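REVIEWER CHECKLIST
Item 1: Sequence provided? yes
Item 2: Single chain? yes
Item 3: Sequence as submitted:
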Amino acid sequence: MNNVIVSPHYLSTELGSTIFNKGGNAVDAAILTNLVQGIVAPETCGIGGDLFALIWVPGKSKPEFLDASGYSGSNVDQGLLSNYESIPLNHSLSVTVPGAVSGWSELSNKYGTIPIEDILDIGINLCHEGFKVSKELFNSLNIHGNELSGQKSGYSFYRDNQPYSVDTLIRRPQLGKTLELLKDHGLEYFYNGEIAKEISKSVNGFLTEEDLSSYKAIWREPLHQKIYGYDGWTSPPSTQGYLTLSTLKGFEMINNKDDYLHTLIESYRICASDRDNITFDYQGNDKNFLGTNDVYIRDKMSLFDKQSAGKYNFPNPHGGGTAYMNAVDQNGLGISLIQSNFYGIGSRIGVGNYGFFLHNRGCGFNLIKGHPNSLGPNKKPLHTLSPTIWSKDGLLDFITGTRGGRYQPQLLAQTILPYILEESSFEEIMKKPRWTIEYFGSDTSSNIKFEFIEEPEVSSLENKGHKISIENKLIAGYGPISTIYKNSDGNFVGVPDVRVGTEKAFNNS
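Item 4: Structure as written out by the authors:
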């Protein structure tokens, strides 16, 4: 066995891999990789966001799932947004309790092998020693300069209200001091100390200090489907993770491989058309969720038409930025971890002079009165994060996930299917063009955007009623998909995505 990490930034991978030399395992490495990613690429994730993780423990037949997503505040009032059709991305009501730090605590306490303080030390040193601005970070800072440059937590990124240019060495001393507080007082200080008070103040009290102090990440049952002999595992609602599994299971049920592209697209569109109706916070009643139920999927797939792109009408029965990383260690412990500020750098609401910004995951709520996913106090919004783990014959086989918000299940289905059909290696799959569908709700037409596509395939899809647009380039937002798989020698291999230049895999045999 060997140690493997794949993450969206070379520094996250490089520093994350150092933990193995200190006696750390895959979970320790994932926590450190996540910590570093939030420091060097806050446009993807950070301590102001949420976290989900699937953990494969050798000897067990299924992974464990950690839900470190937060709920809305006790003082949330939908009436304050009566003039809006959706929740503004930079509104205080868009902020839910940030769960990532509690997630690190749970992961470290249950599976870590080295003190969390040792992990924080590496992040603290990085904050004070500095790192170079990436192109992705510069673009995000430039776009949001008017909102961020005047805030205390934005001081590290701007000079004279202008973002530091690409490759400039910058430091984040404020965040470094915040991490020092967590090291000295424990991770719980984020939720019950001065940091928590400042978080509540930053969002005008919609999140109360009690909301923060009572929060804790929880362990839940993962969703499961058996597809082409593989066992797929993902995050349960209120996440959309089920769409990856239901799409692939639908493809298997339809059994129309000869028209591969049309079948996969329609399988996804059929399942996704019902997403907003069934994906919400079930508040402990996950058994009522139908998304991965065979009967439910088979009923949906009965709508599939070999000759035509459908319009799937499932009327409502009721009144961004992300980083994915994974790791496997020499003992076979594997982790699929995804963490996010949601939309880019998040809500753009800084937490005093603590050096970080809060996510805007609350934008996953809607403003439809009576809907189970409607904005209200003390509930979790629809979440786009969709990590996966795949096993075969009771053994870990591969781990994969991606950023990409609403696109995540689309991107994952495209990369997983040719592998489990034994048609392509992951190395080949990473280079293949991808497609995305922007609008997939009830009663929508099929409009698909491709990176590249051959003319015969365009004609075939258009003849079935699909509308096609072509980018003629690889799109960074269609990834990066990070994958670790077991090769024929029984070793795990990390495969980075070609779409993001900062992504890196660490493979140590």
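Item 5: Key structural point noted by reviewer: The chain has a mean pLDDT of 93.
Item 6: Recommendation: ____
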